Amino acid sequence: MPDPRTDPPAGGSEAEVLLGFLEFHRTIFRMKTAGLTAAQRDQRLAPSGITLGGMAKHLAYVEDWWTTQVFAGRDAPEPWASADWDADPDWDWHSAADDGPAAVEALLDAAVARSRQVVADALAGPDGLDAPAARPGRLEGLRLRWIVVHLVEEYCRHNGHADLVRESIDGQVGE
């Protein structure tokens, strides 16, 4: 299979470079979870309880939380809106095993599509990466730039986790 990654741009605007890195790491995560069965996606690397399926669902939640809810100020889409977060604060991680790989991948695809649209709309506006979040919460002065960098960081961290879990499943290693 050809490598689906596109290197982030070495030049360009700040937004182009940041979004290039975000897309690069989104693709890496997809590569690390590709071709696995439901049982493999739910396999854990002891003593950790994280799974590749849980990671994928968590990343879908992270995409929706930061761009759709915090930045754009919209209500949580499903399944987040009806999840019982009080009963299980890590519901995104734990419920993935009940969904199956195709459903989790579709959830991640939809969340990424919403994120891309929110970011594109903001970048088309007058403030660009300096656009303020509609609901900054405890992060007074939160801007789109911070959110995009945080998404890059989130994918980078979980790509490292995914490397370890994937290698324990079938020996496949990343770069």
TrEMBL record:
Superkingdom of the organism of origin: Bacteria
Gene3D superfamilies reported for this sequence: dinb family like domain
Protein name: DinB superfamily protein
Name of one Pfam family that matches: MST
Annotated organism of origin: Nocardioides scoriae
Cited InterPro entries: DinB/YfiT-like, MST-like
